[in-house]
Structure formats: C-alpha cells, structure tokens
Amino acid sequence: MRKLVLLGGGYGNMRILLRLLPTNLPRDTEIILIDRTPFHSMKTEFYALAAGTEADHEVRVPFPEHERLTVVNGEILEIGLQEKCIFMESGERVAYDDLVIGLGCEDKYHSVPGADEFTFSIQTIGKSRATYQALLGLPSGAVVGVVGAGLSGIELASELRESRSDLKIKLFDRSPRILRDFPERLSNFVKKWFENHNVDVVSNSNITKVEPNLLYNHEETIPVDAVVWTAGIQPVKPVRDLGLESDNSGRIVINQYHQLPNDEHVYVVGDCAALPMAPSAQLAEEQAEQIVKILKATWKGEPLPETMPEIKLKGFLGSLGKKQGFAYLADRTVTGRIARLMKSGVLWMYKWHNG
C-alpha cells in the first residue's frame, strides 16, 4: 500500500484531504495525517480565541473520516528525508512514499532579548488558549502591548478592545502608517477605528528588548502588564533543521510543482514554502489544489504539464471587532459593515465545506 503522509492539519493539507476523499484516492494508497491535535484548527481565527470573543470549539473542525485515513497525534521530532521516515517524539516512526510538509510557522523574534520568554503568542491553538487565560486574568486598567501591526496584530487589538473595554491597549507598528503597503484609504479607516476605540497605535516603533512588565521601544521604556507578539513568523523548527535551500524568511525553496528540487516525492505547502506572495490560508489552499493535480497525475503515470498556472490570490479580509471590517479585493478597498459580513460569510462557508 502506497503511503501519502501529510505533516500538519492546516489549511493546505485540509484542502488536499477534501479533494482526495472520499472518492479520488487510489485504492492502493492510504493517507497518514500527523498533527499535534485531533482536529483542524482555523488559525485565522486564533486572535478571537485569544481575545475571548470566540469559544474554543468555534475555531476548529474535525478531520474527515475514511477507512484509508489514519490520524497520528503527537509532536514531530525530525523529518528524515534520506530515510523517507518521520521520527516522532514518542519514538514512533512513520514511513512515507509521498510527503507533504505543511507544518506551518512559529513566531520569529528577530533576536530581540526577552521576546521569546516574556511575550504571549497566537501561533497555535494551545498558545492562543494560554494567551486568553493571561489576558482574562488581567485587572481593570491593565496595559496590554501588541507587538506587530500586521493583520494578526490589528485583529487581535480590535477584538481585545471589544472583549475588554477596561484594558489599555497599545499596538506597536514599525511602519509610519498601518498597512502601509495598501491604499491610504484602508490605512485611514483602520487608524480611525483605533482612535475612536481608544487603542493607542505607536507608529515607527522598534521593540529592542522585553522584560517582565516592561517593553523597550527605541530608548523609551513602557510599562505593560502583558505582551502579545505578532511581529513576524518563520517555519517551525523541524523544517528549519532540514538545512534545505531557503529564502530570507527561512521558507523552503520549491520547484513549480511545489516539490523539493531534488526530490519529486516531497511537497511543501503553506507557510513553509518559499513563494513570491506572503503566507496565508488562501495561498496554502491554492497550492494544495495544484499539489492534488500533480499527485493524481504522478500516481497514474501521466506526464506533468510543462508549466503550472500562476497562483492568483483574491485579496484579503480583516475584522475590526464583530461589526466592522476591511478588505482588499481585486485592487479594490471595502470597509465597514459590508467587509465584516464578507469575512463572516467566508468563515461560515469554510466551516460548511469542512464538515
């Protein structure tokens, strides 16, 4: 029996499962999915879990069930490319014929002293739960620092404001304006929302050190009661330990078929893959669509296309609490209630398609 092993139950590998099961998986092939949790976690919603506006069960869906799908729960110790085997921390070994690496990312601290030790995270569902517990336990008037004003930082800061109106929230942005790579109208809308809801956006910031209850921004020290880090990501350690060719962000270089250049049986999807676009759930799903086509052609012994279609993303959606949002779609900016309803609709459709 040929073994297709999927590392990580994120957006990319969930799309692969959705396309292969229940009827498109060859009878001589089985799938082994390895993940630390027994369910698929919707990472794009972890900000709401951490802020306390969504319950744990609302940000996860079950993995599909199939007689030739085995789910292995646990932590991955090493990816053995030479051995064609995955080494688990439990001592278990999982052999593969084809492998899809979709293990996602973890926080990148940019060598800032104390950042890894004294900040909270929303990179995994477990860390988001811990962040929620910490923020929930803060007294009224406490100061929360959110380091990083990308999409995750913006959504966390706004959701936390709705959850805890009694907290003082500071959002630290390295840029002179929020979402500086997008139209100024979009930036101004988000900035105005924060001004109206008493979230202090600290522009042109540079966090140089983190201590317990203290942030260093340039030469200034800022007292804080909790800090959440959303200022950069990198592939997880088992992927970094492979020592493969990577881009400046540590993402693995792949060929046009999403494979390792020297191993056609190993694919990389999602946050671990070096692509010209920024990592996102949408990008991982588009990659997965192409990987499924390559797998099916390879299993049938069919030649691969000379070139693969260019991946084109639709844009992005962001929320500002439960009533307002912003979107950048087809080079057009949408703000306000409509954008928030669009995001809610996309989330509902995702849950529906994934059971």
Q: How many domains in all?
A: 2
Relative helix content: 25-40%
Radius of gyration: 21 Å
- The CATH homologous superfamily name of the largest domain equals FAD/NAD(P)-binding domain
How is the biggest beta sheet arranged?
6 strands, mixed
Question: Order of strands side by side in the largest beta sheet?
Answer: 5-2-1-9-20-19
Q: Catalogue the unreliable spans.
A: none
In CATH, the topology of the largest domain is named: FAD/NAD(P)-binding domain
**Whole-number mean pLDDT:** 96
Annotated CATH architecture of the largest domain: 3-Layer(bba) Sandwich
Label the overall shape. Answer: globular
Q: CA-to-CA gap between the ends? A: 28 Å
CATH class term of the largest domain = Alpha Beta
Percent in strands:
25-35%
Structural class: alpha/beta
Counting H and I runs of at least 4 residues, what is the number of helices?
Answer: 9
Total strands: 23
GO molecular function: oxidoreductase activity
Cofactor: FAD
Enzyme class: oxidoreductase
EC number: 1.6.5.-
